[in-house]
Amino acid sequence: MSDTVAPAPRPSRLRLLEPVTFLWIALIAALLVLVAGPLLKMLVVSFEMQETGEFTFQNYLTAYGRQRYLDALRNSLLLGLLSAAISTIIAVPMAWAVSRTDMPGKGFTWAMVLAAFIMPPYLGAIGWILLAGPNSGWINQVWRALSGAEAPLVNVYTFTGMAFVIALHSFPLVFIFVKSALDLISSEMEDAANILGGGTWTTMRRVTLPLVWPSILGGFILIFLETIALFGTPAIIGIPARINVVTTQLWQFFEDPVRVEVAAAYAIPLLLITVGLIGVQRLLLARKGFVSQTGKGGERREVKLGPWRWVLFGWCVLVAMLAVVKPLAVLLQASFAKAWGRGFSLDNLTLRNYQFLLFEHDMAPHATWNTVWFSAASATIAVVLALLVAYIVVRRLMRFGEALGFLAMAPFVIPGIVMAIGFYAAYAGPPVSLYGSALLIILAFAARFLPIAYANSQAAIRAVHPEMEEAARILGSGRLHAIRRVTAPLLKTSLLGGWLVVFIVASRELSAAIFLVGPRTRTMSVLLYDLTEQGNFEVVSAFGGILLVITMAIVGIGMKLVGRDFMLRRE
Amino acid sequence: MPRLVLSGLTKAYGRLTVVDKVDLTLEEGEFVSLLGPSGCGKTTTLRMIAGFVDPTGGTIAVDGSALSAPGAVVPPERRGMSMIFQSYAIWPNMTVEENVAFGLKLRKLPREEVKRRVAEMLGVVKLDKLAHRYPAELSGGQQQRVALARAIVVKPSVLLLDEPLSNLDANLREEMRFEIRRLHDEFRITTVYVTHDQAEAMATSDRIAVMNAGRIEQVDAPHLLYTRPRTRFVAGFVGRTNLLEARIEGGILVLDGVSLGPAGQAGLRDGPALISLRPQAMTIHDAPPAGDGLTLEATITERTYLGESWDYVVRPNGTNLKLRAAAAPLDAHEVGRKVWLVIDPRQVAVVE
Amino acid sequence: MFLIDRRQLLALAAWSAASAKAWAQSPLTPAEQALYEAAKREGEVTWYSGQYSADASEAAGRAFNARYPGVRCNVVRSTSQVAFQRLSQDLRAGVAQCDIFSSTNGGHYIQLKRQNRLMQFRPASADGLLPILRQADPENYFQSSFLGIYLMAHNTRMVSEAEAPKSWTDILDPKWKDKLAVGHPGFSGAIGLWALQMRTMYGPDYLRRFERNKPQVGRSSIDPVTMMTAGERAVGVAVPSASTLFAMSRGNPLKLIYPTEGVIAALSPSAIPRNAPHPSAAKLFMEFTCGPALSIAVRELFNESIRPDVPPPEGSRPLDQVTMLAPSLEDAERGVPEVREQWREIFGV
């Protein structure tokens, strides 16, 4: 247009300002409180003298001044590597078989992975004590009876035993990662290798698996991080096995006098290791492309395995037996037994353990209620926060949106126990003095599981085309109004899925809770841990049974409302 | 002995027959396209040749030995073929060089020879400077060249291409058509090329097999396919055409009372016949043309300018026919004008 | 099965049925009455319980709730060291949550008293305690609430009575390798006392030699009872008599061993932190603890009575027939952390 037109007056500032800006500011504050605050406080405290608060390196000298403490660190790293390696070995063939082959029993395998996923690791540990105690474990008893041997077949109270038990409850993470990556590979990638002369195994080894290498690596790293942050299993199995790890050592720093400063100094290297691992991951994956770049997928074709499909199915059955069926069977038996050592007989049956917990125990019903409402509250906080942050990031509404996203994802790679110590250092004492309050635990859970909710929300928002909202806004609806009336209803189902997943993982969380609970805020996981101190496995198993029933009810609701695979989806 | 023979090849999924008794023979070094609309069974045929799909009937033989028959299928990796996929299926985790070397390494060739042949091949497809790049760092056309190099370097007995250019933009597609033909001229690999794009098939192929609803309708050289379509489907699918109800009367084609001269094909009986009249077979003139060609008086009823040509709809006077005719951009005629239409009788084909 | 004869059993049964009921329903003493009114206004009391087992603590809590309707007892049971750890975390965070602190490690009280963290209070009922327990602290910052007997026990199916170890030094014999189970001084206060006592009696080498036999290390002193019951280990070291007797009453093939040198006796007090959020209820709980109601409740689960007017539990050897070994509270305060650290160096955990 060549006509000259006088410039229109600028719209007044008020019209430019979206009221929603204040919400963004609140969000940043919330993320600072939940994620950045605890970590920074921990860093600061690690350089502070107890009581006086003077600057010092003494905490680091104390934390690393003893062979035993260094041994614990080394043990943790080895345990993490071993568990992650075992998990990978367990999960990758299963994921490949379920995703790309004609193996039978995929539904069964899927259900067993889900079951292993929802079983809290410390319950699995107790199950395996009952199964693989060197003298009393069922497996060893049967082995001795069958073979006449003196020596036990398996011993859970060993380093490998512990790594194995941890792996049996961590492998679903690798499975989920690898399977969802494999699902994205177009069959043409494999076809191309086949037609050039690669058989099924060559193709899997040289093409299919290398294509999902980032997922395998990602799963490996995640399990490594989960393992070094695990408290329950090392306390339950590691102490009798006489293996000290970082988490049990951190626990010792909380003995009187409570040395948060030393604990913080001791935990900082875990963060460095995390950063290092992520750097290594970047390095390994540099330049190369993986499944995300495969372009349009062609027709999906199941790899025909012939008789080998039964071998793979056998592997899945074996894993299911070890991870789910056997531990669950012995836990159930113990929970209904007068004395679990007396075995499966009618006169050993009793409801006494459940009755004790449900009607006589002072703390059990209270802890159950705590677990339910803490989990619900933290899931709600996490999902709401994640939704808003994801919205800003996906729609690119703010200049520093990416930083918000980074903060929301950060807890994903921070060992849970480090988060817990950060929360303790930042909020347990004055000025806020939240120690022993429900709020402290709810906030810690919300922060810890924010990434799950965030990833979920991000995927969900991406799926809603911005034009849907823009259509509402051009008709005069404000952005928040548009989100509430247009976007949110479209997201409902997937947000519910995210909420339920956070609820489930929060309901079994022990590592973060153990440092933060007070007498009135004990959760089921902490009470269960306290109950295991006496080795009273019948009552412990019964309590575990109650926890599993609650979890399964939630999973059932999720499957009904959200869809069968809401737990095992990776967003 | 022919290189590749498909005889009675059939694939059915339950009641649905997607490939129906296909017979096709390829001589060594021949380049044949399977051309047809989506869902015509061409890709399934190709995947049966590759061994990815088991036939429910018929056989596939290479150099006289059967590779596929119902219940007895040699797996793809033992067919000595190679294939280029719609998605290229370049492995993104390997460099260009590694991609190309893959098939050679599987053949357990000495390392030196692998290196030499890969380098040679990359030179041929002009990728020698990009040997150490990863696919994500390449353009679409370059990725396509990698796919070509990877497939050709193993010197396959048969090269299969499954819509290889459908993911490229128009300019690149044209360039790659010539590239594919050039490589074929250089290596003379027996090739089966699946496409729904007739221009692609025309540019690349020695012969084209037009497929429809699981069957081959016609196999012919590209220009014959165009000028002498044998079926209504082929006439309609290959190029634009006017399909007209005509009659043969004493060996003479008669359209709405107008004689079009003798029917070109032999063995046609008198009676009603369907004819295909290409828009390019007609020229439009402002004034009565000189010469004694077949000329009809007509009126322009519609016109559309397409850039490279005019697309006219004309009605020969005294008929109700609507003929599409093409004309060069400068041959502009107003709607409603009287014109003279000259028809080239050699380009009139009777179809089934 | 039981280590008592029929006559005793009948007598005790008669006692349990009649007297226990009578005691439980006995009217509140004036001291209790006075505190009860104030406690009702506070509504609840939180008890960090490290002395009695989970079952017995819960039983005591229920007895308290039954005796003083309107005041609820929150039982927070853990091992003593963990209870102390939680109390320390409270103090460090400046948060008051604990009304009554009960630990088997008497040293904790000396430390808390020195740090001026405890409230002075002497319940009227303390005058009725066993003579040895009557005056735990001359200044009444803490009161006796627990008498735990820690000894050895064995699984009779795995080790016959003749073969079983007789003294604390017997278990150092290499033939007990891989057959012993024990708690952890980092968790259990009683194990801390035991380890300290052993060090005092047999020198610092005792733990080292004990470690060579690779005992299975649990956390609570009660854990070895489970290990013996399960058949995982044959001999439990420094196990509480109460939990062992309780397991025996359920038909498990266990037998107590009274070491020739004597048993470890944890004569342990309870105290009210100075900043207790429910001070009246805490005082009421203290009256309850030193009074007969607690002893009646816990003796049902085979814990020692701490009052002469409540008989000892079934199957326990009368206290006047056993030698009781115990470090003084002052020794415990200093010695237990030392021996705990030593233990960790030796055992690695």
Automatic annotation (TrEMBL), chain B:
Keyword Membrane attached: no
GO cellular component, one term: ATP-binding cassette (ABC) transporter complex
GO biological process terms on file: quaternary ammonium group transport
Gene Ontology MF annotations: ATP binding; ATP hydrolysis activity; transmembrane transporter activity
Keywords: ATP-binding, Nucleotide-binding, Transport
Keyword set includes Nucleotide-binding: yes
Every ABC transporter domain range: 4-238
Pfam families: ABC_tran (PF00005), TOBE_2 (PF08402)
SUPFAM superfamilies per record: MOP-like, P-loop containing nucleoside triphosphate hydrolases
InterPro entries with a match to the protein in the record: AAA+_ATPase, ABC_SmlMolc_Importer, ABC_transporter-like_ATP-bd, ABC_transporter-like_CS, Mo/tungstate-bd_C_term_dom, P-loop_NTPase, Transp-assoc_OB_typ2
Name the record gives this protein: ABC transporter ATP-binding protein
Originating species: Neoroseomonas soli
TrEMBL record, chain C:
Annotated signal sequence range: 1-24
InterPro entries from the UniProt entry: TAT_signal
Native species: Neoroseomonas soli
Alphabetical keyword list: Signal
Pfam family, any one: SBP_bac_6
Stored SUPFAM superfamilies: Periplasmic binding protein-like II
Name of this protein: Extracellular solute-binding protein
